[in-house]
């Protein structure tokens, strides 16, 4: 039976080789899929498509090998890898998705997002997101050396961790009114996203919202086919 799979928030990092190994296993197990969608934050930090780290090369080889088997591969930028670009996608045989994107998922129009733009009550983060997604700011970032970008990425991660520790949990979750607004705007009754690390299926008047979990001690994925969607996890 034809099927597609969705994952997000792997946060791949050289300090967690176990997650990279889990991704390799996952890709091998899903070579028969029609499509694989990675909805942001595949990397804990992405310095730009000229990243020459061993991790960047390892993951590029994994993804290229996977896509060469015939499965369509789609990548979306997240809040950790917003500098992920078309050069990397082209090198691994992937398509870069805009956020948001609507796809036809076995006859059901489905809205795909990373999910960070839905967290509108976190005004501090939304202000940063606006800056980080600005093409001019990104061009200035990419003009810096890799070493300068590595230092800045380390600083930004530390600042984010410190800032989040002082925020109420509900502020960092999606705002339901924004979810409803986006689903109505894109005329869909099905939404798949990640970012919040709160895997679940939510039903509302707007439709069904599927939330992917992050990869840590467990990995999370959604399998979709003509019978619908299924959220599941597996040990890492």
> What is the average per-residue confidence, as pLDDT, rounded to a whole number?
95
Distance between the termini: 26 Å
Low-confidence stretches: none
Helix/strand-derived category reads alpha/beta
Radius of gyration: 17 Å
Q: Provide the spatial order of strands within the biggest beta sheet.
A: 4-3-2-1-10-11
How would you characterize the overall build of this protein?
The chain has 236 residues and is an alpha/beta fold. Helix content is 35%, strand content 25%. It is built from seven helices and eleven strands. The chain has helices at 17-29, 54-67, 86-92, 123-132, 135-143, 146-164, 176-185, and strands spanning 4-7, 35-39, 72-76, 94-97, 101-105, 108-112, 190-193, 200-204, 207-211, 218-225, 228-235. It has a six-stranded mixed sheet. A five-stranded mixed sheet has the order 5-6-7-9-8, covered by helices on one side.
How is this fold's topology laid out?
Blueprint: E1 4-7, H1 17-29, E2 35-39, H2 54-67, E3 72-76, H3 86-92, E4 94-97, E5 101-105, E6 108-112, H4 123-132, H5 135-143, H6 146-164, H7 176-185, E7 190-193, E8 200-204, E9 207-211, E10 218-225, E11 228-235
Parallel strand pairs: 1-2, 2-3, 3-4, 6-7, 7-9
Antiparallel strand pairs: 1-10, 5-6, 8-9, 10-11
At a glance:
This protein is an alpha/beta fold. It has helices spanning 17-29, 54-67, 86-92, 123-132, 135-143, 146-164, 176-185; strands spanning 4-7, 35-39, 72-76, 94-97, 101-105, 108-112, 190-193, 200-204, 207-211, 218-225, 228-235. The protein has seven helices and eleven strands.
């Amino acid at each position: 039976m034809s099927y597609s799979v969705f994952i997000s928030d792997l946060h791949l990092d050289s300090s967690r080789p176990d997650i990279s190994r889990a991704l390799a296993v996952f890709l091998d197990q899903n070579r028969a899929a029609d499509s694989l969608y990675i909805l942001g934050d595949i990397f804990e930090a992405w310095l730009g498509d000229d990243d020459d780290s061993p991790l960047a090369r390892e993951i590029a080889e994994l993804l290229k090998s996977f896509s060469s088997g015939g499965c369509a591969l789609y990548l979306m930028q997240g809040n950790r890898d917003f500098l992920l670009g078309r050069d990397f996608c082209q090198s691994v045989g992937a398509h870069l998705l805009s956020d948001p994107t609507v796809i036809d998922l076995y006859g059901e129009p489905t809205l795909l997002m990373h999910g960070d733009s839905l967290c509108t009550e976190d005004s501090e983060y939304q202000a940063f997101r606006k800056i980080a997604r600005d093409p001019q700011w990104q061009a200035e970032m990419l003009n810096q050396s890799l070493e300068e970008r590595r230092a800045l990425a380390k600083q930004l991660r530390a600042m984010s961790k410190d800032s989040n520790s002082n925020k109420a949990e509900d502020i960092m979750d999606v705002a339901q009114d924004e979810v409803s607004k986006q689903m109505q705007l894109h005329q869909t009754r099905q939404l798949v996203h990640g970012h919040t690390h709160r895997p679940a299926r939510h039903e509302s008047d707007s439709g069904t919202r599927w939330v992917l979990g992050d990869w840590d001690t467990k990995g999370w994925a959604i399998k979709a086919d003509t019978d619908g969607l299924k959220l599941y996890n597996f040990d890492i």
